[in-house]
Amino acid sequence: MMIRHYLKIAVRNLWKYKVQSMISALCLAVGIVVFSLAYLFVDRMADAYSRLPEHERYVRIMAFTKETGGDMPFALADVDELLFRTEGILDSVSVHSATMRTDADVIGKDGSSLPYIVRYKVTNSSFFRYFNLPLLYGNFLPKSADEIVVSSEFAERIARGGSPIGMVVRLASFMPENGIRDYRIVNVADVPKDGLNLDADCYFPLELQPYAWLQVHAFIPEGQMLSGLDETLKRLAWDKEGKTVTVDASPVSGQTNTVIAKILALLLASLILVSGLITFLKFTFQMFYARQHELALRKSMGSDMKGVFCLLFVEVFCMLSFAFLLSQVLLEGLQLLVSRFPFLPEENMGWFVLEDCYLVQGGLYLAVLFICLFIVACPVWRVRRVNLVNRIRTNGRRHGFRCVMICIQLFVSMGFLGAVIIVRLSYDELGSRLYYPSGKVEENRIIAIDMTTAVIRNNWDAIHAEINRMPEIEGQTSLNEDSDDGMLSYRFITFMKQDSTEVRLKVMAGNPNYFSFFHIPLQGKALETETEGFVYVSRSVAELMRHEHVKGMIRLDGKAYQIAGVYEELYKNVTGNSRIAGSVFFPAQDFKTWLLKVASGQDADKVMGKVKAVCQKHVPYTLPLDVYKFGSRSVYSMMDTLEAVMWILAAVSLMLVILSMYSSISMDAVTRRKEVAIRKINGASYRDIAMLFAKSYITMFLLMYLLVYPLLKLAMANLLEGSSLKSVYGWEWGVILFAVMALLTAMAIGWQIIKLMRINPADTIKKE
Description:
Residues 268-387, 648-761 form the ABC3 transporter permease C-terminal domain. It comes from Bacteroides gallinaceum. Helices cover 48% and strands 19% of the residues.
């Protein structure tokens, strides 16, 4: 009966302060969602080896050469030598390469053939057992040189719900070292997408790429320690090309750097959780202190400390349970949002499993409930002094806990927001260093086509002939550089100065009409696409040559080239970088990216659709087709990702602190209306009323700003050290941070203060 009574009182009180209750529950729900997602990501990606069974036995075998002192990558011949010398020493030696890409044709059981881009690794048969990868069709593993295992995801693509066993993968773009091009599928492995980075489409035998760099792992034999195994391995040595090779073993789980990164990531996410929990507890305690008269009456009627504790704990339980259910709703909404509007590539979202998120949220719910069990005892202990004769007076000490909690929230939100502002300003500074010609090209009128598959390369003449007949195209050029997600990946070359020091130069190769296509000023002659022994140099390189008294010829990586011309700079290249002395451009007939310029007045989207339609005539649906606007891809995708994550964290932390301050001032507005009415009767002005409530918030804001500003400046300066970016040392970000936080603080508390300033004392006293 008492539980039912406590529940009725809890629901009644929470409904009485429904706005504040909803805000507190929402803040805690957001904190739970953010921390659960961060925990799941870190658990799956940061130290994935720790989830393997008996992960303490997992070691990685590294090879070193005594002459150079550096580690040596394994090739197939080195692996064979290692296996020969460690027979009986190592248990279940697993060998695999990094993930590579190639064109392949998949031949079905009916003889039909479809082309695919295949991501593959070369492995040995122990690879699947070592990493505990389930095989879906028994325990069959490749026994002959022409048998392979494929992933479950790739099997679904090629067999479409059926069995891929017996289908053949034919390599289309190169002849393997072992001379075998057709490989029969004998099993399917269920490979998770996590921090182990084992996912691929096909797993070929090691003989396919005997010179690939290989990773070697093994188990520590049962009953043996890592130190003993390491000592045994260090006594092994063999000669390779006149160098002495030694090996050692190191654990793959629990590495110091991994543990530190995991702790830092969780600490960052826990700040959001703590901020939400602070809002939740602050409202609960504030509401509890606002009911001193009720508690005094309960004690005078015989209620003991146990009853008061149960009453408060039931209210906390109801609020926390509602916040937990709200977090489930938010997570469902987030999953729907991600599925409809994916902001990360699908291959990077393998860690986001909804059921696992629910389990983490459930664990957080129980942990927070357990913590609150002890926290609730603090105000209950203070209430033991409450009685009808001597009630706890309303004074500044009552709000000490609340002020400390709001200060922590302000510190967190200012830190996140300040970091975002610095990253944004640094990004703009970097963007201002990108070279654009005086007549800046409209990038949205440039369409890029990446030659990502052998099919599009083999059919390019037919595709290009149709594109040439399109009147909407007014210019074309080609570049022989790899395009990573649409952005050109530069190579580097070295120039030897007279004092024997080397400087690095960026390299681009392509059609020389590149300069006219982008309106880049060029001094020199236009060459054919394939002209051996000639190179174009940027103006900064020409200045360097003049300083070094070099004329007409330049030696790059020890080879001499004749100067064909001098251009201003490569399009969108970063200028003012002290680490790079300039750039060079080599004429090349081969190309990996083809650029088309749409004529002025034409709809670039419609033209791009026509270009895609032309390409799709020759490229099967099973192959990717990379046709996109050249200006739609970011120059620095990693920086964009960092900025997006920090914006999310800053937005969440700002929302929590704003809601927290709004909840606090709203609670004050409810509990101190009579005090305000009496002060107005006694002659208090609007300014007096405003300062009565705003003074503490202004003080907290200024204290936290003065604390955050120097700490954040020091931290970001160390983080960006060596990048030549100067935004962190300027005054702009500090002013922006102060202005934004001051505005948000004023918005959070201003409306309730205005309402308090305008109350009618007579009506307030009458209601009391």
